[in-house]
């Protein structure tokens, strides 16, 4: 297999995945990049603190539980493909 063609197909798959994200999932990804320096862990800790009524960094209009499920979906995709979706945001 031609390496460049294979990489282009994988990159297109990731862009397709990004395009299929809901508005809420995309918002979480952008917030992760802008507020948490690309760290899902820091973002999740902040959301969990908000659930426990502890100090937190930002508020979201959706429920925290739903956001945590969305984060898990995004983490799973990143782990399966060994990528950082944040790197693909700039391409759009």
End-to-end C-alpha gap: 27 Å
Strand content: under 5%
pLDDT averaged residue by residue: 82
- How many helical elements? 5
- How many discrete structural domains? 1
Instruction: Please tally the β strands and state the result.
Output: 0
Pick out the low-confidence regions. 1-5
Radius of gyration: 15 Å
Features:
disordered N terminus, 92 residues, single chain, 0% strand, 5 helices, mainly alpha
Overview of this structure, please?
It is a single chain. By secondary structure, the protein is mainly α. It has one domain. 71% of the residues lie in helices and 0% in strands. It has 5 helices and no strands. The protein has helices at 3-20, 23-35, 40-51, 64-81, 86-89. The radius of gyration is 15 Å and the shape is elongated. The model is unreliable at 1-5 (pLDDT under 50).
Offer a concise description of the structure:
It contains five helices and no strands.
Write the layout of secondary structure elements.
Layout: H1 3-20, H2 23-35, H3 40-51, H4 64-81, H5 86-89
